[in-house]
């Protein structure tokens, strides 16, 4: 069947421009008008004695949490557009391609008539097998038949596959608000653009300024792919993901995990704003550092942190440091920072320009006493520290400095173990951090182990802790960041492919 047989039904615009129109809002909004995102701001210490000259700065944690509405009822989820770019080079023959075909069939069956699906295959060249179209009963049947007939051919033109997928998805008229590209490959690019920088630059150029945004999920199949490249491609967009599919049988659960997230998006383009009020500035309060790569300083002195999209139940924590205020008789406790968030509420189909501010208040009483550290802030600092240690180890190991890479991991692990707070040591995230640091050490045991799987696993763990999102390819893997929707998707796809 030719691509012309795929029926294209126009999708109604998702009208975000009519936010000010009350009639439009009522017609499109759900009965539940609760916010998609909530914000809390917590200082590491809520009291620091004014006579304590040792503690000059204090950490503050801004926590943004997504609603769990879709966990209780996924009927209200936003429609999605998904285009898959599948490697069908010769190395994908046999069980690999068969499992990928079964997974694609599951994906197509899982999507609803309001969703769109498209498929690009790449080998020596890239081919548009299924244009990204709405899944009517006719187009769904045609897509399933097309997938069943897929065969392997030639080498690996990754650049051609990605660029064609982006071109096709961006060409959709009246696109859905949630859009994603899934890229699956098992090898190194050896056709088209073959160097990593060239492929990353091409991907950025093809994406341009996308509205609605397009996320890219990359799936590295087996031990011969370029983990650094796929990780870099996934980081081009805020909602991107990288999965290391070590075993053939894990491809379905990895796709299910990724899809579970995409189908549970509740907010997009989330931005955290951090500011210091004039009354605090007069007391010497300034932002020293924001521990997030997405932070930028504006001309007005405020920081904005791009947080991307949120799946149901997800949380993001942004740590920043401020100088401690000098004494004040008029303000107690003293608000050291003010934060707000803005985002697109995907479920309510509206723009939330700015939420009510949340502040971090710290008492500055006479004396030198410092209150106990807030466990949540300490845990989030360890998370950032562990992610940075993995980044350093990754850079060192790529230059052959395995012992120095191991030292970076050991130092971080030892620092976490020195924390004597029982509540912190028993926290699930701390347990996962220690386990992941141990696994990183095993992956850095020698060059052979690092090349075979250590590099891929550390890349996945590093991105997961940086973004606070699960990228586990195994359905039964325990991961603190794994949401209910991602867990359900992973288990569903894994069990269906075993039948």
Number of helices: 15
Q: Would you tell me the overall average pLDDT?
A: 89
Report the major sheet. 6 strands, mixed
Report the strand count. Answer: 16
Proportion of helical residues? 25-40%
Radius of gyration: 24 Å
Distance between the termini: 28 Å
Structural class: alpha+beta
Q: Can you put this structure into words, describing what you see?
A:
With 499 residues, the protein is an alpha+beta fold. The protein is built from 15 helices and 16 strands. A six-stranded mixed sheet has the order 5-4-3-6-7-8, sandwiched between helices. A hairpin with a 4-residue loop joins strand 14 and strand 15. The longest helix is centred in the C-terminal third of the chain and has 24 residues. The chain is globular.
Features:
single chain; alpha+beta; disordered N terminus
Short structural description:
The chain is α+β, with helices and mostly antiparallel strands and 499 residues long. The chain has helices at residues 22-28, 69-72, 95-110, 137-148, 158-170, 196-207, 227-234, 251-262, 278-281, 375-398, 402-417, 422-425, 428-443, 447-467, 484-498, and strands at residues 37-43, 57-66, 80-87, 116-122, 126-134, 178-185, 214-221, 241-245, 265-275, 287-290, 295-297, 303-311, 315-323, 334-345, 350-352, 358-362. Strand 14 (334-345) and strand 15 form a beta hairpin.
């Amino acid at each position: 069947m030719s691509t012309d047989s795929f029926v294209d039904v126009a999708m109604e615009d998702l009208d975000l421009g009519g936010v000010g129109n009350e009639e439009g809002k009522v017609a499109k909004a759900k009965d539940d008008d609760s916010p998609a995102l909530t914000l809390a701001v917590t200082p590491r210490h809520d009291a620091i004695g004014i006579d304590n000259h040792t503690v000059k700065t204090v950490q503050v944690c801004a926590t943004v949490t997504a609603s769990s509405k879709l966990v209780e009822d996924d009927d209200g989820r936003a429609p999605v557009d998904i285009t898959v770019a599948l490697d069908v080079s010769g190395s994908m023959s046999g069980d690999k391609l068969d499992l990928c075909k079964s997974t694609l069939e599951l994906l197509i069956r899982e999507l609803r008539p309001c969703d769109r699906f498209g498929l690009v295959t790449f080998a020596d060249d890239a081919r548009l097998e299924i244009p990204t179209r709405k899944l009517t009963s006719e187009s769904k049947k045609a897509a399933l038949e097309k997938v069943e007939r897929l065969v392997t051919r030639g080498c690996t033109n990754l650049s051609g596959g990605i660029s064609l997928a982006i071109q096709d998805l961006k060409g959709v008229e009246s696109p859905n608000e949630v859009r994603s590209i899934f890229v699956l490959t098992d090898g190194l690019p050896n056709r088209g653009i073959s160097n990593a920088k060239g492929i990353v630059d091409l991907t950025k150029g093809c994406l341009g300024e996308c509205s609605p945004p397009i996320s890219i999920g990359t799936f590295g199949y087996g031990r011969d792919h370029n983990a650094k490249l796929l990780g870099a491609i996934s980081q081009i967009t805020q909602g991107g993901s990288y999965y290391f599919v070590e075993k053939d049988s894990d491809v379905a659960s990895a796709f299910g995990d990724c899809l579970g997230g995409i189908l549970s998006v509740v907010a997009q383009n989330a931005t955290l704003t951090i500011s210091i009020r004039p009354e605090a500035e007069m007391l010497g309060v300034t932002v020293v550092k924001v521990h997030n790569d997405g932070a930028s300083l504006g001309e007005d002195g405020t920081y904005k942190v791009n947080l991307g999209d949120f799946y149901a139940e997800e949380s993001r924590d942004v740590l920043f440091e401020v100088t401690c205020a000098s004494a004040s008789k008029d303000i107690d406790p003293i608000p050291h920072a003010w934060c707000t968030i803005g985002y697109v509420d995907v479920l309510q189909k509206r723009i939330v320009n700015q939420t009510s501010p949340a502040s971090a208040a710290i008492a500055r009483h006479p004396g030198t006493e410092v209150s106990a550290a807030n466990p949540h802030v300490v845990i989030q600092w360890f998370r950032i520290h562990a992610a940075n240690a993995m980044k350093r180890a990754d850079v060192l190991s790529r230059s052959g400095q395995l012992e120095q890479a191991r030292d970076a991991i050991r130092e971080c692990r030892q620092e976490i173990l020195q924390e004597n707070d029982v509540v912190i040591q028993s926290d699930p995230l701390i347990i996962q951090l220690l386990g992941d640091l141990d696994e990183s050490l095993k992956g850095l045991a020698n060059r052979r182990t690092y090349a075979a799987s250590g590099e891929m696993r550390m890349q996945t763990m590093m991105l997961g802790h940086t973004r606070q999102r699960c990228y586990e390819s195994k359905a039964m893997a325990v991961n603190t960041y794994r949401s209910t929707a991602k867990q359900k998707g992973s288990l569903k796809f894994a069990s269906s492919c075993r039948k």
